[in-house]
Every structure is written in structure tokens, then in C-alpha cells.
Design brief:
By secondary structure, the protein is mainly alpha-helical. It has one domain. The protein is 46% helix and 0% strand. It is built from four helices and no strands. The chain has helices at 19-22, 32-37, 46-51, 55-76. The protein starts with 18 loop residues before the first helix and ends in a 6-residue tail after the last helix.
């Protein structure tokens, strides 16, 4: 990695920009929740990752598990009850 020279560390913000004014209305982490809502990161064990090498394969398998679970619940209901 290349080291920065002293000249590269100089602040390049133009004098007409007042940083205190620019940051006055800012809210820290304003969009953090939106990012988290759309992101689900799951780490798979090595053997599982070999069986399901893509996100599409994992999603298809999990959807099948969901369908089988629903089917199993329907079959276990006593007769005459919805």
C-alpha cells in the first residue's frame, strides 16, 4: 500500500464551504435502518455451501421447506376443523 505524502493530507475543502453549516442538519445513521431491512446476511457452513452454491439455490430449497411445513400442518389437523 502506498503511503500518502504530506501534501496529500492537506484539506481540499474550498473556503466558501462552511463545514459547520453543511453538517448542521445532519442526522447520524439516518438510512441505517433501511439498509439493514433489505440486507439479510447468513453464513452457511461449508458442507451446506457446497450443496447450495448460489443464493438462488438456497432460496429455492428454503421455499420448499416452507411449503412442506405448511403441508405438514394441514395434514395434522383433526378432521372437520379448518
Amino acid at each position: 500500500m502506498k503511503k500518502k505524502s504530506k501534501d496529500e493530507n492537506i484539506d481540499e475543502l474550498r473556503p466558501e464551504y462552511d463545514l459547520r453549516e453543511l453538517l448542521k442538519g445532519g442526522v447520524r445513521g439516518k438510512y441505517a435502518d433501511r439498509y439493514r431491512e433489505g440486507t439479510n446476511l447468513v453464513l452457511l457452513d461449508h458442507d451446506v455451501a457446497e450443496a447450495f452454491p448460489t443464493d438462488k439455490a438456497v432460496n429455492e430449497a428454503l421455499r420448499l421447506v416452507i411449503q412442506l411445513t405448511k403441508l405438514s400442518r394441514v395434514e395434522k389437523r383433526p378432521e372437520g376443523k379448518p
